[in-house]
Amino acid sequence: MNEITIIKPDDWHLHFRDQDMLLETVSATARCFARAVVMPNLVPPVTTAALALSYKERILAARPEGSSFTPIMTIYLTDKTSVQDIKDAKAAGVLAAKMYPAGATTNSDSGVNSLESLYPVFEALADNDMLLLIHGEVTQKHIDIFDREKEFIDQHMVKIVDRVPNLKIVFEHITTKDAADFVLSARDGVAATITPQHLLLNRNDMLDGGMRPHNYCLPVLKRSTHQAALRAVVKSGSPKFFLGTDSAPHTKDRKESDCGCAGCYSAWSALELYTQVFDELDALDKLEGFTSFHGADFYGLPRNTESVTLIRKSWEVPGNITLPNGELIVPFFAGKEVAWKLK
Ligand code: NCD
Ligand code: ZN
């Protein structure tokens, strides 16, 4: 097959950042995605309905001329989030709340310290038909960084899923066989997003033959057996798994530093790279479910009606992208060949 037409996809997890950066990030995503779930980890974070609404206005203002791209807004849970905050968010059209364990990842310092005290908020999300989106890693420093996702499942995820049985939960950007197996065997109303980097790469691609800061994201890339498990699960076509790029831009100097930050900016190539993976797996017939149906169905939103076409054509991801303020970003897969291209 040299060409594939699919219903226009949505991105169920990404980071647009703010201000100047929006002109770059919003158009890169709007080139191929109809909607995107926008993560709230700005500095300071988007913790209230009012902050989400003003952020949404800034995103809409950054859309390219004529674009009908729609951002789906989220709020950021902290130790102080109240049931009223959830009701206000619902009234403002916010669909989901994101839970970062404090200190788990980039811009998560204001995240949750005590999960136990958040149960009334989880109940409120369920009562208001909103989703809980979880960054599933423990933050205990003595736990090996490669084991933090599995530990989160054992310590917390099992409990949350069980104690709030009518809450829809997305286990974001899963990276392990443990997480894939957990989601497969979990009750209805539990799903996961998977990024292009976790399907394409494993930790050798970050550490073998030199450190590659542009492949460093959180949760960190795992060993190849986990990569293989994620590839198997998308190939299976299970509706519990859907596209979430976790596109997360950082400037080149913040990535290439003695304490480089986590995140891969994949918006320029993500859809093409997912297509490449499904092609490698001989599973192009499962691509559209993953990119365009499973997420919308899980969120309870209508499927898109427009379509996009990808063609088998090799191209090279640029080495740098220049932001409106002159700063540089090195995109994910910079300088590498991608086998598919958006027509
Ligand atoms: C994300 C970011 O930069 O905001 N970084 C990342 O490595 N994925 C945060 C996140 O989703 O963990
Ligand atoms: Zn993310």
From TrEMBL:
Q: Which residues form the Amidohydrolase-related domain?
A: 11-309
Amino acids binding Zn(2+) 2: 98, 135, 173
Q: Which residues carry this modification: N6-carboxylysine?
A: 98
Q: In which pathway does it act?
A: Pyrimidine metabolism; UMP biosynthesis via de novo pathway; (S)-dihydroorotate from bicarbonate: step 3/3
Query: Which residues hold substrate?
Result: 15-17, 41, 135, 218, 250, 262
Quote the catalytic residue positions.
246
Q: Which reaction does it catalyse?
A: (S)-dihydroorotate + H2O = N-carbamoyl-L-aspartate + H(+)
Pfam (any one): Amidohydro_1
Listed PROSITE patterns: DIHYDROOROTASE_2 (PS00483)
- Gene3D superfamilies with a match to the protein in the record: Metal-dependent hydrolases (3.20.20.140)
Domain of life, source organism: Bacteria
Extract one GO molecular function annotation from the record. dihydroorotase activity
List positions binding Zn(2+) 1. 13, 15, 98, 246
Entry note: cofactor: Binds 2 Zn(2+) ions per subunit.
Which CDD domains does this UniProt record tie to the protein?
DHOase (cd01294)
Cofactor needs: Zn(2+)
Q: What is its EC number?
A: 3.5.2.3
Q: Which UniProt keywords apply?
A: Hydrolase, Metal-binding, Pyrimidine biosynthesis, Zinc
Query: What SUPFAM superfamilies would the database entry show?
Result: Metallo-dependent hydrolases
Tell me the subunit arrangement: Homodimer.
Q: What does this protein do?
A: Catalyzes the reversible cyclization of carbamoyl aspartate to dihydroorotate.
Identify the PANTHER family for this entry.
DIHYDROOROTASE (PTHR43137:SF1)
- HAMAP family noted in UniProt: PyrC_classII
Protein family according to the UniProt entry:
Belongs to the metallo-dependent hydrolases superfamily. DHOase family. Class II DHOase subfamily.
| Protein's name in the database | Dihydroorotase
Q: Which organism is it from?
A: Marinomonas colpomeniae
List the gene name.
pyrC
